[in-house]
């Protein structure tokens, strides 16, 4: 009979002996700490221990002269990746995904539940986190399924999953077609503090489609997936969320007042039992942004993410029939892309998430329509966004860093990485001047299906530190 | 006088029933457990849903008051041939019964029956609607144990959504000044219950401060064709199931029965001294005698006068 207080999100990472590292004269940039300055950074015993203009290297410290002039950001957090374990380790596993993540400046990566078997019971989530504790060089969080077996029919054992430490719940890879299941999940999770992440897709509208329905599907002859396949379910889900949120507020109003009058521990429990945050995954369509904006203006408990590939690529790219561009939701029109970029810049879209989706060569080396959907994204996320949107002035750097680090932590209820003395050392260092062309050798996971392969990007991750130890260092 | 909903009774009606019950309790302690109060009256028990304790309780209550009691069961009556509730009631009405006790799977069945008979209709449970006599016997049991009802704190735990017992008890208990709270997964709380000012808690921490924990049976038979409200009985039992080690000293446990041992409560808790389950059953017989008497009291008094 465990109390809901037992539902605490858990991150797991292989422990390494902490190093003593001095990064001399680096540009520290952390919007959450209002930090934007050139200084020395000293790391010891797993934490940031000094920030200043002439920090002396203590005995035994390694001075990383090669990073002089790099920018240091709070470590990136990817709240949407497919770690492919258990069950599809030929595509990826916690160790290889963490390797790819570290190369992209990520200190935390969150795995979705659509594995084989599906992570729909507590012991499976615990197993993944145990693997991560043994083998992953960045922090790994695990998502639990909303429905048993992702079948969309009955709730998975959400409470046991929450107690096992899952960071969120999602049937990602599949939509929640049954609106009542969403309502039940929002009710059942009340008070656990765990958000629900929604993959929006109308199965009927999307049926048979392999790219955005529009100008280029018409030209290429591929069957299209209309934008309404995403915005339609979003509109429906907002109605369910509004209903559930009002209900939770009414219940908390009654229960809070009564319990407060009687005193006792239940008073706190009731008042801290709002409906869970609902987070919309990989938004792709302008219509979805419009709905999201008005839902946020109304004060509904919602947030959203966008992927680097939806921010930078459009349906026109599918002309190449490169199966790495077969993605779900599909790359949409130039107009959609502009709206997504503006929404990220203004904060309507909270987070950047990779939807890192490795597939083996033999699975992707097939005709476009037969290929599975997905692109890898951990290694290239920052460089693609920095080169494509920050350098051009479309999105301010502080917004990008927030969207890749603190914002996903706010959604998941995790402590955000911070560049401040006393904080755990979870950061990355980036040479923001380096322009580079993405090659297969830059992809460090098990698969190479990158939508950005061959693209020119800017900003090279040179160092990733998790808990005071180097997890990636490109000298 | 019908008894369809707990709302049909005032506080003084209920207190009157308690006083009558005290007397009838004594009848059941005698070697010859019978009084002539309802001699010559006819009581028809119509049980369209399976029942052990409620049916036995009503039958014994009638017999100990010397009423002529007959039992109609859904499975072995013309109902099994497709007879409508209306026709069954009209048919029995031709025998001029004085009291009809009805248990039915549909909400509102007892109310419907009142339209087709001049007998006093007593609702012995209508679907997920109400079970007023259960509420009254629970109140009577609490009164016997605690003396006063006002100010008692009771948590009703579990499958409130599908429970007619909860629907009568929440409102009946509050009528008598008991502080009622609901505890369980939010998916098992009736949506809108907060508009009646009933506090609901998802967290078992809300059990700590109550005097009595009233557990409900998980009613799996009522969810067919609908989305199950909890992922599994295993998870329900692990989070919300009760065993003796979870009880605070002095707390007592009630259950309307039948119990799912190992689901809403462990078997050893059902058998533990903190359990009032059999006390409830005992209280129920006396209380139902009181209800049968009270149902016919106006005409009994008229005849006496």
Describe the structure concisely for a colleague.
The complex is a heterodimer of chains A (475) and B (305). Chain A has 475 residues and is α/β, with parallel strands linked by helices. Helix content of chain A is 32%, strand content 21%.
Describe the structure.
- With 475 residues, chain A is an alpha/beta fold.
- In chain A, 32% of the residues lie in helices and 21% in strands.
- Chain A is built from 15 helices and 18 strands.
- In chain A, the strands form 3 sheets. In chain A, strands 1, 2, 3, 4, 5, 16, 17 and 18 form an 8-stranded mixed sheet that branches.
- In chain A, helix 2 packs parallel to helix 3, helix 4 runs parallel beside helix 7 and helix 7 packs parallel to helix 9.
- The N and C termini of chain A lie far apart (53 Å).
- About 3% of the residues of chain A have low confidence.
- Chain B has 305 residues and is an alpha/beta fold.
- Chain B folds into 2 domains: 149 residues, Rossmann fold; 149 residues, 3-Layer(aba) Sandwich (Rossmann fold), CATH 3.40.50.
- Chain B is 36% helix and 14% strand.
- In chain B, the strands form 2 sheets. In chain B, strands 7-6-5-8-9 form a 5-stranded parallel sheet, with helices on one face.
- In chain B, strand 8, helix 7 and strand 9 form a beta-alpha-beta unit.
- In chain B, helix 1 packs across helix 9 and helix 2 runs parallel beside helix 9.
- Classes of the chains: A alpha/beta (475), B alpha/beta (305).
- The interface between A and B is large, with 39 and 37 residues.
């Amino acid at each position: 009979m465990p109390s809901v207080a037992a539902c605490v999100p858990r991150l797991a990472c292989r422990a390494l002996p902490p190093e003593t590292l001095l990064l001399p004269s680096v540009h520290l940039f952390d919007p959450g700490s209002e930090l934007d300055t050139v200084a020395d950074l000293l790391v010891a015993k797993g934490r940031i221990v000094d920030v200043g203009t002439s920090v002396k290297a203590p005995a035994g410290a390694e001075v990383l002269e090669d990073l002089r002039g790099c920018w240091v950001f709070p470590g990136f957090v990817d709240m949407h990746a497919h770690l492919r374990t258990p069950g599809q380790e030929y595509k990826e596993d916690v160790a290889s995904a963490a390797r790819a993540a570290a190369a992209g400046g990520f200190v935390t990566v969150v795995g979705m539940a659509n594995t084989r078997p599906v992570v729909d019971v507590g012991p499976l989530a615990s197993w993944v986190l145990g693997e991560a504790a043994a083998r992953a060089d960045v922090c790994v969080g695990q998502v639990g399924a909303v429905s048993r077996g992702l079948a969309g029919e009955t709730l998975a054992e959400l409470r046991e999953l929450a107690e096992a430490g899952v960071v969120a719940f999602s049937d990602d890879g599949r939509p929640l077609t049954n609106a009542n299941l969403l309502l039940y999940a929002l009710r059942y999770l009340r008070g656990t503090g765990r958000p629900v992440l929604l993959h929006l897709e109308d199965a009927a509208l999307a049926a048979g489609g392999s790219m955005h329905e529009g100008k280029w599907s018409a030209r290429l002859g591929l069957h299209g997936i209309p934008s309404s396949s995403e915005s339609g379910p979003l509109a429906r889900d907002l109605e369910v969320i509004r209903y559930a949120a009002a209900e939770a507020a009414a219940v908390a109003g009654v229960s809070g007042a009564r319990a407060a009058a009687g005193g006792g521990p239940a008073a706190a429990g009731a008042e801290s039992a709002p409906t869970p945050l609902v987070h919309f995954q990989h938004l792709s369509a302008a219509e979805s942004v419009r709905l999201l904006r008005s839902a946020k203006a109304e004060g509904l408990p919602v947030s959203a993410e966008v992927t680097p590939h939806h921010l930078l690529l459009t349906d026109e790219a599918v002309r190449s029939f490169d199966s790495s561009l077969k993605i779900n939701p599909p790359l949409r029109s130039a107009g959609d892309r502009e709206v997504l970029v503006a929404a990220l810049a203004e904060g309507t879209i909270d987070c950047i998430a990779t939807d890192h989706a490795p597939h083996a060569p033999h699975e992707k080396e097939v005709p476009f329509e037969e290929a599975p959907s997905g692109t890898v994204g951990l290694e290239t996320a920052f460089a693609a966004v920095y080169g494509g949107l920050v350098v051009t002035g479309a999105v301010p750097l502080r917004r990008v860093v927030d969207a890749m680090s603190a914002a996903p932590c706010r959604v998941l209820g995790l402590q955000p990485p911070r560049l401040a003395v006393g904080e755990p050392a979870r950061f990355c260092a980036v040479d923001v001047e380096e322009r580079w062309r993405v090659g297969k050798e830059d992809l460090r996971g098990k698969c190479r299906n990158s939508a950005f392969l061959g693209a020119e990007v800017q900003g090279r991750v040179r160092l990733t530190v998790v808990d005071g130890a180097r997890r990636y260092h490109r000298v | 006088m019908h008894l369809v909903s707990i709302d049909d009774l005032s506080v003084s009606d209920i207190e009157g029933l308690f006083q009558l019950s005290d007397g009838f309790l004594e009848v059941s302690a005698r070697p010859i457990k019978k009084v002539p109060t309802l001699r010559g009256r006819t009581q028809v028990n119509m049980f369209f849903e399976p029942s052990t304790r409620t049916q036995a309780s009503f039958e014994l209550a009638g017999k100990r008051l010397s009423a002529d009691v007959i039992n109609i069961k859904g499975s072995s009556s013309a109902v099994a041939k497709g007879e409508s509730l209306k026709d069954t009631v009209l048919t029995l009405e031709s025998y001029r019964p004085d009291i009809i006790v009805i248990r039915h799977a549909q909400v509102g069945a007892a109310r419907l029956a009142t339209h087709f008979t001049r007998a006093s209709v007593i609702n012995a449970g209508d679907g997920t609607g109400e079970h007023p006599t259960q509420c009254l016997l629970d109140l009577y049991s609490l009164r016997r144990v605690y003396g006063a009802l006002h100010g008692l704190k009771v948590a009703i735990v579990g499958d409130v959504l599908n429970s007619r017992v909860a629907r009568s008890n929440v409102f009946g208990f509050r009528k008598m000044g008991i502080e009622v709270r609901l505890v369980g997964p939010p998916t098992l709380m009736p949506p809108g219950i907060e508009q009646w000012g009933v506090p609901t808690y998802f967290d078992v921490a809300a059990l700590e401060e109550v005097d009595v924990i009233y557990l409900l049976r998980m009613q799996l038979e009522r969810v067919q064709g609908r989305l199950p409200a909890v992922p599994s009985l295993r998870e329900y039992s692990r989070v919300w199931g009760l065993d003796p080690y979870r009880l605070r000293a002095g707390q007592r446990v009630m259950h309307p029965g039948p119990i799912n041992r190992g689901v809403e409560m462990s078997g050893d808790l059902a058998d533990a001294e903190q359990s009032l389950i059999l006390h409830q059953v005992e209280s129920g017989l006396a209380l139902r005698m009181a209800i049968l008497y009270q149902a016919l009291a106006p005409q009994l008094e008229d005849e006496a006068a």
